[in-house]
Amino acid sequence: MTSDAMLTLIAPNVNFPRLEYQIPIVLINDRFSLGRQDKDNKPKTSDYEFDVSIKSISRKHAIIMRENDAYYLVDINSSNGTYLNDERLKRNVQYLLNYHDKISFSKQGIEYLFTTDEDTGDETMLMLN
Q1: Domain around 73
Q2: Domain count along the chain
Q3: What is the pTM of this model?
Q4: Tens digits of per-residue pLDDT, 28-67?
């Protein structure tokens, strides 16, 4: 299964050493959910789960969805918020994602850059250097 889009870690945070550098977004029914692992290893509730040690991310935190060839980000009632280009999202509202938008899950320095498979990897790497 190939990814439809990608989240790339902007700056590693020493407080969260177990963050994935890249999160491939594989849409199932045009949706991709993000959340935190359950400490008791209960069944997955999200398509991608951050390490259980990252308490600032909710078990059900956000969704990336696609409608009519556009991508959207939705905060699904997370405790510490989802941010798009440093602006906190209102809960359960769709926000259009654009090339190189910055997505943060809480204000704990967990920041990713959004790209789609139409974007080139070279441009993403230039942003990170």
Answers
A1: 5-128
A2: 1
A3: 0.82
A4: 889 999 999 887 767 677 888 888 888 889 999 999 999 9
